[in-house]
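How a chain folds remains the central question behind the approach discussed here. No coordinates are needed to read the tokens, only the vocabulary itself. For completeness, the protein is quoted in full, as a sequence line and a line of structure tokens:
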Amino acid sequence: MIQSRTHTCNELKMSNVGECVIIVGWYENIRRVSKNLGFLQLRDYYGVTQVVIETEEMMDIVDSVNNESTLSIEGVVRERTSKNATLATGDIEIVPEKITILGKCQYNALPFEINQSKEADENTRLKYRYLDLRNPNVKEKIILRSKIVADLRNRMNELGFLEINTPILTCSSPEGARDYLVPSRNFPGKFYALPQAPQQFKQILMASGFDRYFQIAPCFRDEDARADRSPGEFYQLDMEMAFASQEDVFSIVEEVLPPVFEKYGVYKTASKAPFKHIQYTTAMEVYGSDKPDLRIDLLIQDATEVMADCGFGPFENQVVKAIVVDKFNATRKVIDKICADVEVQTGNKAFWFKLDENNELVGGISKFLVDKKEQVIEALGLKPGDFVGLTAGKKLVAQKTAGVLRKLLGYASETHMKQDCYEFCWIVDFPMYEIGEESGKLEFCHNPFSMPQGGMDALMNEDPEKILAYQYDLVCNGVELSSGAVRNHDPEIMIKAFELVGLGEEDVKAKFPAMYNAFCYGAPPHAGIAPGVDRMIMLITGEESIREIIPFPMNKNAMDVMMGAPSEVEQKQLEDVHIKIDITEEDK
């Protein structure tokens, strides 16, 4: 049976007064005045309309069902005596002649009030996600997501990109995270893997003669959740361009993203092309992060030399970084909170002192600097009233800790952080290789498919740790939206690049057979990127948790509490795919 309606619950206006109409939706609530008078709110996908119950017959029908039941109401539109400017239909109401129950809510009590669902425990919200999504404030984020994705798709089409869907069942590939594996029924002991990214397929498309590819690509990684990362499944605006350079990719992204952010974002201004380019080493030195928030204008200075031999233990034989904040009038309580938050986030301490209006060093570690006051003032360029935050440790530790301190000081400052804008930048010139913290051996720093700057000559003749890659990250407001690269399309250069990390030609052929073989038949230079759709929408909507903009997200433990996944399966299903479960007590 197809339910009919003449109007939605946000359509009826004064021009409809006197008309007989049919509306359908969820019975949200009723304000009772007497046994035969009440004001019922009916809500559908589009809005809310008031229905005036004026007879005992109609009230009996309403009393026979619980809130959130679905109803069809046929009646006459009339002007409201008490109008509601907050509703699109606030000038009118409907006097029902017929109320039909379409779907009963079986429960007297709901797990939470629909319009207050965001105040409920997250696991409760996710368990009853179908109720949570009825909340207009929750639903509007999913509607906005659909609009943004459609806009991104249209912009890519207009720029000549062809949308191609790549396989979901593929082979396991070392992409840097754990795979989700799918056992094969027809090939005992062998597995498919869900793609961590369409990386190899999109590069093979370039070798296949397609010039510009994109898709809103689902990606699957067995990772732990974070506020800005959903475990399990996520989506990215995946794109690749043949015969393209790094700058070609930049120009496309700079044309596509800012208008979308400005059109839909909580902030209405975004960086204009070209975005600022920051070398990786500069980003770490000046901002303490490879994803700097450029809304904050504070910069990190090196204070190692001037702080040497000051007698403060944590600075001895360590790199010291300083952040100077002028006119920082925070209380001691605020300063202590910032230092405590730095330690929570990094595991390392932050220190501080001030230059007061009398040109004296005060507070924090100032007593260790009394004998070096003039050198400190000169080295850091201090003026009366300046606050100085400090970090120390090995170089990378000092940098990263200073990066967190810089961000917290920027957030706490009234004058050093721009408001209401999206600040984009490119982080470029990443190292091709690094020494692994755990292995102590040379490893790829980022994407192993990146083209080394200098090509074969660099691989043959330069110190591997000094070789840079055509690798770049897109950053917005301190959030990394994507990594991308000019790809290594030359089989000989690829073999040499992998040799430096201890993998020979046979290893490359075994791990990436299709892509390697495709490149042996004449591959074009190509480059690409894949901004995360979920993270973009999180920034656009101003949400702090990525789960707010995903229709059916997993919880922090990678569980779908609504559907009950992951779940046990029947023994027959395991036998069909040749799987035997061996769980120890420690695994439980």
Remarks:
- The chain is about 30% helix and 25% strand.
- The radius of gyration is 30 Å.
